Amino acid sequence: MNELSRRFLDAVSEVILGKRHQIELAFCCLLARGHLLIEDIPGVGKTTLSHTLAKLLGLSHQRIQFTSDLLPADILGAMIYDEEKRGFRFHAGPIFHQVVLADEINRASPKTQSALLEAMEEYQVSIEGKTHSLPEPFFVIATQNPIHQTGTFPLPESQLDRFLMRISLGYPDPEAERALFRGRNRSELIPRLSPCMTPQQLLSLQQRVKEVHVADPLLEYVQSLLGYSRQSAEYALGLSPRAGLALLRAAQGWAFLQGRDCVYPEDVRTVLAPVTAHRLQTDVTVGDSEACVRPLLEYVAIP
Fold first, then answer.
1. pTM of the model
2. Domain of 121: which CATH number?
3. What does the DSSP 8-state code read for residue 151?
4. Measured between alpha carbons, how far is 211 from 193 in angstroms, rounded to an integer?
5. Domain count of the fold of the chain
6. Are residues 196 and 298 in the same domain?
7. Over the chain (303 residues), what is each successive 10-residue block's mean pLDDT?
8. Which residues, including other chains, have CB under 8 Å from residue 169's CB and lie 6 or more apart?
9. Phi/psi at 261 (nearest 5 deg)?
10. Among 94, 148, 153, 251, fewest CB within 10 Å belongs to which?
11. How confident is the model over 14-68, as pLDDT tens digits?
């Protein structure tokens, strides 16, 4: 692992206690130029992690609180009449930042959620027939409450597919929880944080991730995973080619974090659950990502 990445991960770990693996997965997602969905119950640090990542990345960021009455224009912006110029001009919405924190995304209606689709896939927004490019780099980090909670809407499959990874923080272990009780409020630490890298350094790391080598046997392994998900009766809907590309990108990011210039099967297996569980349709208990992908890990041979 290079020194820049190590400093970043160490800084996040000082705020989010006892969750090093989840923090590394989140950073891996951003290195692979993906969007991140953090799903868990309230009060375990989802929003704090989102704010911390945005602050330490050194990028412009904006938090959007999703509610049932939020409209697409509240996210994207709208055409507003300018009396001085006697014409309409585009007023950019909060989506026009490098890091957008979509807090409690599933408390907004599906119509409002769909406003993010074009932005997350094509890095642009179309308003009144005109296309507006989003800043580079551009990330959406969203938090989501469990869908059985009151006042939540399920994310459409097309929206879920735009997230490279979905992770959960879970409860802290006893030692980390005691340290949390004895220390300061974690959200009070965020304003004191200084960026660990510049936008140019982040873009450079992302380029290096793209150059991590993937050998042909690894490509065959990923194809075998996709094929099993499509043929097995355990899944109502298998993984798409886009899911396969997402899995390869995430595996490259994980290999890079481990200090390697090529992808190993262990890299694919490490990121399999965060990348694919939210894309698979199965009867497994919602939120149990590891159980969802267990058949893939057990029955698909490693090259």
1. 0.90
2. 3.40.50.300
3. T
4. 31
5. 2
6. no
7. 89 91 95 92 83 88 90 89 79 92 88 88 89 92 75 80 91 85 80 88 94 96 95 88 96 96 96 93 65 90 87
8. 16, 19, 22, 38, 40, 44, 45, 46, 49
9. -105, 15
10. 148
11. 999 889 999 999 999 999 999 999 988 877 888 888 889 888 988 888 999 999 8
Structure tokens at 229: 């998900």
Structure tokens belonging to residue 211: 């150059």
Q: Are residues 130 and 225 in the same domain?
A: no
What CA–CA distance (Å, rounded) separates 274 from 215?
Answer: 22
> In terms of residues, how long is the chain?
303
Helix axes 20-31, 265-276, angle to 10 degrees: 90
Residues 176 and 122 grouped into a single domain: yes
Looking at the structure, tell me whether residues 226 and 197 fall in a common domain: no
Q: Name residue 45's amino acid.
A: G
Two tokens, residue 42: 């309230």
Cβ-proximal residues to 143 (8 Å cutoff; 6+ apart), any chain: 37, 38, 39, 46, 47, 50, 101, 102, 103, 104, 105
Identify residue 66 by its one-letter amino acid code.
Answer: F
Q: pLDDT tens across 66-78, in order?
A: 998 999 999 999 8
Apex CA 101: angle with CA 100 and CA 105, to 5°? 115
284-300 burial, b at 16+ Cβ within 10 Å, e below that, comes to beebebeebbebbeeeb
Strand 124-127 and strand 130-133: the pairing is antiparallel
Domain range enclosing 111: 1-203
Maximum distance among all Cα pairs of the chain, rounded to whole angstroms: 68
Helix segments in the chain, DSSP class H = 3-15, 20-31, 46-57, 72-76, 110-113, 117-122, 157-160, 174-182, 186-189, 199-210, 216-231, 241-257, 265-276, 289-299
Q: Rounded distance, CA 38 to CA 47, Å?
A: 9
